[in-house]
């Protein structure tokens, strides 16, 4: 597949212009300008309720903005057909649910819907895309098992496989690692980074884990009260000052001596916790 085939020179393929969006006339995202950088992993962070999902849904065309517009390859996304968009943009919402009894292979095959028409049913190309997606997401071993029988991490990889089978080069994911073991979260994030860096895909991911976001993002975007307040590389954005003003979190930002990555360590105000640490660190 040729990536970025439709990108106008010098412009990101997906961008929101002055987006105001919300529910029942109540805006929760306010006049947001947002460009999703091509071929990179952008992570969207912010406190609960700051509007991350709402912004993602607006960019994904699931929610119509009250004001502003989303442009995909220069065309207003809310004016395009679902199938047309789904050939370019894969979206994994928060906590997706599958029809009862559906197998892994059947779920992943749903990702091929934008490529099918009345006169073009299932083809070898669809079969190849489904097999490739299951192999990449490492779910081929349980292809014929019902989704409901799998663990949370396995199930999440199946959803990712479904998005991969769609073969879009833009992928938006809302909290794809929630409730997963740390090892499974890391595996998933490594997969997403490979998709961007090795396959030229563009990813926008809402993530709640600050340290994992700082470790894996090319670009970190921080939201608060429905507005983007910081955006840039983790080196520039992941600072103690920004964590304080965006998350009301007192934390030290330190560097992992092995990887050089930035990490935040919450400052402890509980005397009991501080005492435990002092005891643990005291010379023998
Ligand atoms: P985040 O993803 O940062 O946690 P959300 O975008 O989910 O934030 O929510 C922003 C605000 O919008 C919250 O106050 C939330 O209660 C509200 N909200 C989210 N989804 C809906 C909905 N479907 N209907 C009404 N209000 C909603």
Placed side by side, the strands forming the largest sheet appear as 6-7-8-3-9-10
The residue ranges in which pLDDT falls below 50 over 5 or more consecutive positions are 1-9
Please tell me how large the radius of gyration is.
20 Å
Terminal Cα span: 61 Å
> CATH-wise, what's the superfamily?
P-loop containing nucleotide triphosphate hydrolases
Question: What's the SSE blueprint?
Answer:
Elements: E1 14-23, E2 26-36, E3 41-45, H1 52-59, E4 67-72, E5 75-76, H2 82-86, E6 89-92, H3 104-110, H4 124-136, H5 152-165, E7 170-174, H6 182-197, E8 202-206, H7 210-216, E9 219-224, E10 227-232, H8 234-237, H9 240-247, E11 251-255, E12 262-266, H10 271-281
Parallel strand pairs: 3-8, 3-9, 6-7, 7-8
Antiparallel strand pairs: 1-2, 1-4, 4-5, 9-10, 11-12
The structure holds adenosine-5'-diphosphate.
Adenosine-5'-diphosphate (ADP) is lined by residues 23, 28, 46, 48-54.
């Amino acid at each position: 597949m040729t990536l970025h085939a439709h990108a106008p020179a010098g412009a990101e393929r997906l961008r929101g212009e002055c987006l105001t969006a919300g529910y029942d006339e109540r805006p929760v995202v306010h006049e947001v300008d947002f460009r999703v950088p091509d071929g990179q992993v952008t992570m969207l962070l912010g406190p609960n309720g700051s509007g991350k999902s709402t912004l993602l849904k607006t960019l994904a065309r699931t929610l119509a903005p009250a004001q502003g517009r989303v442009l995909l390859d220069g065309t207003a996304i809310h004016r395009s057909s679902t199938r047309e968009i789904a050939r370019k943009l894969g979206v994994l919402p928060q906590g997706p649910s599958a029809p009862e009894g559906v197998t892994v292979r059947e779920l992943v095959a749903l990702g091929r819907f934008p490529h099918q028409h009345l006169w073009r049913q299932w083809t070898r190309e669809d079969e190849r895309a489904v097999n490739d997606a299951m192999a990449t997401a490492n779910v081929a071993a349980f292809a014929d098992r019902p989704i409901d029988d799998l663990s949370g991490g396995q199930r999440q990889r199946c959803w990712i496989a479904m998005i991969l089978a769609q073969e879009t080069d833009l992928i938006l994911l809302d909290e794809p690692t929630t409730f997963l073991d740390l090892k499974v979260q890391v595996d998933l994030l490594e997969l997403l980074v490979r998709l961007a860096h090795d396959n030229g895909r563009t990813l926008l991911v809402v993530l709640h884990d600050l340290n994992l976001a700082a470790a894996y993002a090319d670009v970190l975007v921080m939201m608060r009260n429905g507005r983007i307040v910081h955006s840039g590389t983790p080196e520039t954005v992941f600072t103690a000052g920004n964590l304080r003003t965006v998350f009301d979190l007192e934390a030290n930002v330190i560097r992992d001596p092995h990887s050089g990555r930035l990490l935040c360590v919450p400052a402890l105000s509980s005397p009991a916790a501080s005492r435990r640490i002092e005891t643990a660190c005291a010379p023998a």
